[in-house]
Design brief:
The complex is a heterodimer of chains A (314) and B (298). Chain A has 314 residues and is of the alpha/beta class. Chain A has two domains: 9-163, Rossmann fold (3-Layer(aba) Sandwich); 186-308, Rossmann fold (3-Layer(aba) Sandwich), CATH 3.40.50.920. Chain A contains 13 helices and twelve strands. In chain B, β2 (151-156), α5 and β3 form a beta-alpha-beta unit. In chain B, α1 (11-35) crosses α2 (41-57), α1 crosses α3 and α2 (41-57) packs across α7 (230-240). Chain B is globular. The relative contact order of chain B is 0.17. Classes of the chains: A alpha/beta (314), B alpha/beta (298). The A-B interface holds A 28, 49-50, 52-55, 57, 59-73, 75, 90-91, 94-95, 98-100 and B 68, 72, 114-116, 122-127, 129-142, 144-145, 147, 151, 163-164, 167-168, 170-171, 174-175.
Chain lengths: 314, 298
């Protein structure tokens, strides 16, 4: 499988929200002083009156978003994942999630690709945290094509949502005919021996790993789960029934994220052996993207190696 | 309670509001006594401010709580919820008898305000420092949507130790939100307080003048008022929406536990269950003596 690179999701973010705002005067952009990084600056150029600089004060920004939402506006949040999730977590919980207010938490810089920043900026438990919060839905698009559709969905969705976006250009996986459906998993490769489930921009690397495994005679079934919550339990059960073995792969902690969600669902609905590939309870270090993928076992060859080992094929 | 009303404040209106403030205090002490739980010191210090807001200042329609053009009010010091509930009930948002469900299971009157349960609450609060941010959002939203609604936020002085308050203060001044009014219930006590040589071995959350200096430094228009002087409160709040490009901070000097003799000025009445004999004294202090032989309801 050879994929071309897509455009950086952050550009898709600035562009798409600006386009949405062309047609919807309720949309506003709140920026925690990183608009030149998250590309909220694209929105600012198109709609300067609705670009709201909040300064380096993320707790207040979340509260302002809640207040704006009560006035019928639709705030999108521009900051990095780390400053969008853990720093203002209590504000999200009390003012946005429990109240059900219509705030779009759409940070860039998810996962490892944060521009050599290190542990303060690389947060690997954001999906675990947001998924656990009552009232919050969590979406992790795979590429620029899906990210654009997810942002359009988010604007139309009436309620709080968490959409994690990636800074750097990543492989484009989906064609123009792809349609994101909220809450639905997507089977992207059919196989019989093992089900690989992934989310976010890990997807192309998992499909590439499946190709490597095929050369060894392992026929992997691959499911993409863009919506971590609510989880598409039926699709995951069906995939588990098909192959009898499930391995999750995510550029995220194995605790509580995709792997946690899948293990919970299968434990209740169709007990299956589940292995989880991802960060093992650690804080990642900074470095070039490709080097980090190798270190943390998330490159396609490293994923394939781990799957072989887990299946007793190595 | 009030000083000489100024010419611009109607004396009859001041009398009416003072009586409402007294009713708020009576109802909140009753409700907390009934619930055997809840805060007292903070709601009592805020009662005059709540009476002025809900019965004179706020442009609201209790029969249409979601009226889009209403003024907004946020109780950022959410632990004083029972004071707000008493004001809302007396204003007609819900029956006064419902105050007796405060803190009970399935009540709309949660320990801290929950906007998803009770119509008329403009924001859920309880985690300190957040209300002022939400209020800033409402003020900004009013401007963006072309409404002349004002947003009033009531904060505690202890609450002003939260960093988020100063994030909001910075950002609201940057946005020039002169439709935003923060009122600080400056009762000089917090839940427990910092050890020192003050009453009960605690010192106030700020030194004298500290709040005025801070809000001024954050480029807000700051006014001080005696938070138990109804005429003065009306005068200050009437002027607060003047609109000179700056948000307004009203530093209201109050007494924690105001109106109940044995609670005034003691941190430990922040929250505490009332004994039957104390309840009788409290009601008498508030001009609502119990009939002879009647103790506190269980």
């Amino acid at each position: 499988m050879t994929l071309t690179m897509g455009r950086p999701m952050r550009e898709i973010f600035g562009e798409t929200v600006a386009e949405l705002a062309d047609d919807d005067p309720r949309i506003v952009m709140l920026d925690g002083d990183v608009g030149s990084s998250t590309r909220a600056d694209i929105f600012e150029k198109a709609h300067p009156d609705r670009y709201l600089q909040m300064g380096i004060a993320e707790q207040n920004m979340m509260g302002v978003a809640a207040g704006l939402a009560t006035m019928g506006l639709i705030p999108f949040i521009s900051t990095f994942v780390s400053f969008a999730v853990v720093r203002p977590l209590d504000q999200i919980r009390v003012l946005i999630a429990q109240t059900g207010l219509n705030v779009k938490i759409t940070p860039g810089y998810a996962g490892l690709f944060t521009g050599q920043t290190g542990m303060s900026h690389i947060i690997v438990d954001d999906m675990s945290i947001m998924r656990a919060m009552p009232g919050m839905v969590t979406v992790s698009p795979a590429d620029d094509v899906e990210a654009r559709q997810v942002l359009r969905w988010a604007a139309a969705y009436d309620g709080p949502c968490y959409v994690r976006l990636v800074r750097d250009a990543t492989a484009r996986f989906f064609g123009d005919d792809y349609r994101f459906e909220f809450g639905e998993a997507v089977t992207v490769r059919e196989g019989r021996d093992v089900t690989l489930i992934s989310t976010g921009t890990q997807l192309p690397r998992v499909v590439e790993a499946a190709d490597l495994l095929a050369a060894d005679g392992v026929d992997a079934h691959v499911v993409h789960v863009p919506t971590i919550k609510p989880l598409d339990v039926a699709a995951i059960v069906a995939a588990a029934q098909r192959t009898g073995r499930v391995i999750t792969v995510e550029e995220h902690s194995v605790i509580g994220g995709l792997g946690g969600a899948v293990a919970e669902a299968l434990a209740e609905h169709h007990p299956t052996v589940v292995n989880r590939i991802g960060f093992q309870d650690l804080y990642p270090e900074s470095g070039p993207n490709d080097a980090l993928l190798e270190i943390y076992g998330l490159s396609a060859p490293r994923v394939a190696d781990q799957v072989r080992r887990l299946l007793g094929r190595s | 309670m009030s000083t000489q009303p100024a010419a611009d404040v109607d004396a009859g209106e001041v009398d009416r509001l003072e009586e409402i403030a007294r009713r708020i205090r009576v109802e909140l002490v009753r409700a907390v006594n009934h619930a055997r739980a809840g805060h007292l010191g903070g709601p009592l210090s805020a009662a005059d401010l709540l009476a002025a807001l809900y019965f004179h200042v706020l442009r609201i329609r209790p029969e249409d709580p979601d009226w889009p053009d209403r003024d907004r009010f946020i109780l950022s010091k959410g632990h004083s919820s029972i004071g707000l509930y008493a004001a809302m009930a007396l204003r007609g948002y819900f029956p006064v008898e419902e105050l007796m469900t405060f803190d009970a299971a399935h009540s709309r009157l949660q320990g801290h305000p929950d906007m998803t349960r009770l119509p008329g609450l403009d924001m859920s609060t309880g985690s300190l420092g957040m209300g002022i941010s939400a209020g800033m959002g409402m003020a900004l939203g009013a401007r963006l949507t072309g409404r002349d609604s004002r947003t009033y936020v009531l904060l505690g002085d202890g609450e002003c130790q939260e960093g988020e308050v100063w994030e909001a203060a910075m950002a609201a001044a940057r946005h020039g939100l002169d439709n935003l009014v923060a009122i600080v219930d400056h009762n000089k006590l917090q839940q427990y307080g910092w050890p020192g040589d003050g009453p009960d071995g605690r010192i106030p959350p700020q030194v004298p003048g500290e709040l005025v200096a801070k809000w001024t430094a954050f480029r807000w228009r700051v006014v001080e008022v005696d938070g138990h002087d109804m005429a003065a409160i009306l005068r200050v709040l009437a002027e607060a929406g003047r609109g000179d490009g700056r948000p307004v901070a009203v530093i209201a000097h109050t007494v924690k536990g105001k109106g109940v003799s044995f609670m005034e000025g003691h941190y430990f009445w922040h929250t505490r269950a009332i004994k039957p004999e104390e309840f009788a004294i409290a009601m008498a202090d508030l001009g609502e003596p119990l009939p002879t032989g009647q103790g506190a309801p269980a």
